[in-house]
Amino acid sequence: MRLLHTSDWHLGQNFFGFSRQYEHQQFLDWLLLVLVEQQIDVLLIAGDVFDTANPPSSAQQQFYQFLCAAKLRTPHLQVVIIAGNHDSPTRLEVPMPFLTALDMVVTGQVSWQEQKIDVERMVIPLKNCHGEINAWCLAIPFLRPNDVPKVENASDAYLDGIAALYQLALDHVLNKREAGQAIIAMGHCHM
After folding, report:
1. Is 140 helix (H, G, I), strand (E, B) or coil?
2. Which of 1, 8, 87, 171 is positioned for an S-S bond with 83, CB 3.0–4.6 A?
3. Distances 74 to 56, 82, 84, 129, 183 between C-alpha atoms, Å
4. Could you tell me which of 44, 72, 2 has the C-alpha nearest to residue 140?
5. For residues 137 and 171, what is the distance between their CA atoms, to the nearest angstrom?
6. Are 9 and 52 in contact (CB under 8 A)?
7. Which residues of the chain have pLDDT under 50?
8. Phi, psi of 137 (to 5 degrees)
9. Are strands 112-113 and 116-117 parallel, antiparallel or unpaired?
10. pLDDT of residue 12
11. Contact 62, 103 (CB under 8 A)
């Protein structure tokens, strides 16, 4: 199984008033060639897809056109996308019904059910070209203070909450994982 990890595309960015759309398109065209030439099975996009939470429509079109072209050129391709600190978590998740049909998953935000984190949403099976699970991806988006669990006697509520959430996801995948299946942890951290 061949994986390609990317992050921080910042589509829609302007640099001192100049659009970087042309540069971004050159990158996306190159990335598409790499996906095909290297026969990539899984593309991991670790956040900051867009430069702002409300990106221009041209940047959104550029992103979704790339995803469609990638799937057309590499039909077996699986894509896992997480939100970064520049992305709108909900905006990234809106097209999920369409992306799911293309073997693409977005984890934009942490979901809670009955005051518990829905860890299942952040644990993604990665399948080979035969449809067999070869690996698992912990797809953890940028975590805001309200996203993390409360930790008793925490020295730093936010950092200890982040560590606790990653541990929850790891414990969950360790219960699902079978012998020989790899675990890949992907998160977006703002330093």
Report:
1. strand
2. 87
3. 27, 21, 25, 11, 23
4. 44
5. 13
6. no
7. none
8. -115, 125
9. antiparallel
10. 93
11. no
* Contact status, residue 165 vs residue 140, Cβ threshold 8 Å: yes
- Four-residue CA torsion sign, 14, 89, 148, 48: negative
Task: Show the tokens assigned to 54.
Answer: 């409300």
Single-letter code of the amino acid located at 147? D
Distance CA 128, CA 144 (A): 33
Kindly calculate the radius of gyration of the chain based on its CA atoms and give it in whole angstroms.
17
Q: Is 52 exposed, middle or buried (0-12, 13-18, 19+ CB in 10 A)?
A: middle
User: How many whole angstroms separate alpha carbon 89 and alpha carbon 78?
Assistant: 20
Quote the tokens at residue 3.
């994986």
Token reading at 72: 């057309």
Across the strands, what pairs with 93?
none
What is the pTM assigned to this prediction? 0.91
SS (H, E, C) 97-126: HHHHHCCEEEECCCCEECCEECHHHHEEEE
* The pLDDT value given to residue 95: 92
Instruction: Give the number of residues written for the chain.
Output: 191
Q: Among residues 66, 143, 74, which one has the least CA distance to residue 107?
A: 143
Q: Is 52 helix (H, G, I), strand (E, B) or coil?
A: coil
Per-residue model confidence (pLDDT) at position 130: 83
CB 11 within 8 A of CB 59: yes
Residue type, 59: A
